[in-house]
Design a protein that fits this description.
CATH class of the largest domain: Alpha Beta
Number of helices: 21
Structural class: alpha/beta
CATH superfamily of the largest domain: P-loop containing nucleotide triphosphate hydrolases
Number of domains: 4
Number of strands: 9
CATH topology of the largest domain: Rossmann fold
CATH architecture of the largest domain: 3-Layer(aba) Sandwich
Bound molecules: adenosine-5'-diphosphate, magnesium ion
Radius of gyration: 26 Å
Shape: globular
């Protein structure tokens, strides 16, 4: 059956296929039978009574139960803030189709929506069928692929770096202009040596099974890889490059050289690397106008975080917003708190706020343990403690001047301003603190996320209960 009618307008079949796919991508499910019935009838401008005729649903059920939910979901997917109603549904869907697919069909609607051939992804990226927001980041990344060779996505654990890289790979895989010949996903969380990584990449890029022609000299192999990346334009994600930064010295140097060569030598491919902190050298290379960029990933914007909460079954708009603010839109922490609200408070955000506490997910707890025990020096450690004690229950901002005035000497030695500033930069790079400038006073403020503040309270200051944290069940995790 042709999907497009002769006038080139969006057809019902096309609209249904589109809503179905978006529903699966955003809500993790297909359209139900009554939803499909409702969409078909509404498309034909039938009233509820007519739509219900010949089906097993009543008009009241379709009107009172199915319709309000479906309109809300479609409005959330479109995300313009406009309300969807039975009357404006059709124009909404036409707008949505143009928005989502216009780049594939020269602005027309003649492309068979479901027939776009996907470019296969080599490797195992995580499932991103439920993914909200980040449209600005995604289009920014797309722009960067034209002029840069490497993009570094940095941000605190669980903020969504891996998900964003996977979503981008997915988008490229289903987009219709063949910008890349190969899409490669490689997790490097197990800290392979550069030699192992390069050998793996050469095989995938060249599509060969055995590494028999490879030599034992890493630099020679990197040269072969660069040649392969020059003859074939690839998009390669290296996910989780943190580990090599803290492993042995030799491996750190090997990686530094590897990345330098990827950035400075000739090839036409694009790398995305994800890590908690910006790798050594990257800032310097970026300042030196090398073809390298980095993006600091923050929590989800409030609308997208709200969709995440609703998709996870929470209700109570106002309280959900408070929850989003409390966790800075951090998706993994929000998911973790939602699981607990569902389990302990039967999904009621109100009941949770009655017993308000800041949860720390076990994953965040172990990442913070690692950072505090292995990555921070004495001064950085002290700054974190000082910031936590300077904040109050409702206030997580501390002015730079206040920190200066309250900072205790280390081993009876005053810390120099330059040392303090360097430490703050390092903490910001690790996403342990954020900085804000007051637009009026121009004063610089440092901000500690409630989750990190709570971690410091429990771990180092021996405080398990504050006035906002009357419940301490979070310690059970
Ligand atoms: N934009 C998003 N929409 C929905 N869920 C998300 C989004 N970003 C991240 N998540 C979820 O949050 C969790 C942590 O994300 P992940 O990408 O693994 O974080 P990171 O790589 O920064 O540690 C995952 O369960 C992921 O599915
Ligand atoms: Mg990750």
């Amino acid at each position: 059956m042709p999907i497009v009618n002769s006038s080139g307008q969006l057809t019902l079949e096309q609209a249904l296929a589109m809503v179905n796919e978006l529903m699966l991508a955003k809500m993790g499910r297909h359209l139900s039978d009554p939803e499909t019935t409702l969409l078909e009838g509404t498309w034909n401008n039938d009233d509820y009574q007519t739509i219900a005729e010949g089906t097993s649903y009543t008009a009241n059920y379709l009107k009172g139960f199915v319709a309000p939910r479906l309109w809300n979901i479609i409005a959330a997917i479109v995300g313009t803030g406009k309300k969807v109603t039975k009357t404006n549904l059709r124009s909404f869907l036409e707008y949505l189709y143009q928005k989502e697919y216009s780049n594939c069909s020269d602005g027309g609607v003649s492309e068979d929506y479901s027939a776009i051939e996907r470019l296969k992804i080599n490797g195992e990226p995580p499932d991103v069928s439920i993914f909200f927001g980040r449209s600005q980041e995604l289009s920014h990344i797309k722009d960067l692929t034209n002029d840069y060779k490497l993009l570094s996505l940095i941000g605190i654990a669980g903020v969504g770096k891996t998900a964003l890289a996977a979503k981008f790979l997915n988008q490229i895989s289903s987009s219709c202009n063949a910008q890349f010949e190969r899409l490669i996903w490689k997790s490097v969380a197990h800290a392979p040596t550069v030699q192992e990584l390069v050998n793996d990449l050469i095989q995938v890029v060249q599509d060969t099974e055995s590494p028999s022609t490879l030599l034992e000299y890493t630099q020679v192999n990197i040269t072969s890889l660069l040649q392969a990346l020059q003859s074939r334009r690839c998009l390669i994600v290296l996910d989780g490059i943190d580990t090599f930064q803290t492993t042995n010295f030799e491996q750190r140097l090997d990686y530094r050289l590897f990345f330098r060569r990827l950035i400075e030598e000739q090839h036409q491919s694009f790398f995305i690397v994800t890590s908690r902190a910006l790798p050594l050298d990257f800032k310097t290379l970026s300042r030196a106008k090398r073809p390298l960029q980095y993006i600091k990933i923050k929590g989800l914007d409030s609308e997208s975080a709200m969709k995440l909460l609703l998709a996870n079954g929470l209700t109570g708009n106002k309280k959900c917003r408070e929850l989003i603010e409390m966790y800075y839109g951090h998706p993994a922490e929000l998911q973790s708190v939602v699981e607990r609200i569902n389990y302990y408070f039967a999904g009621s955000t109100e009941a949770f706020f009655h017993n308000k506490t800041t949860f720390i997910s076990p994953e965040m707890q172990s990442v913070l343990d690692e950072i505090f025990s292995q990555e921070l020096n004495e001064a950085e450690h002290r700054i974190m403690l000082c910031l936590a004690s300077c904040t109050t229950d409702n206030q997580t901002l501390v002015s730079f001047n206040k920190l200066l005035n309250n900072f205790p000497p280390i081993l009876n030695k005053e810390i120099s301003i330059s040392e303090l500033i360097e430490s703050l930069e390092c903490l910001e790079n690790l996403s342990l603190i954020d900085t804000f400038r007051d637009p009026q006073s121009k004063e610089l403020y440092l901000c500690l996320q409630p989750v990190i503040k709570k971690y410091i309270f429990i771990k180092f200051l021996g405080i398990t209960t504050t006035s906002e944290d009357l419940q301490t069940i979070s310690l059970a995790s």
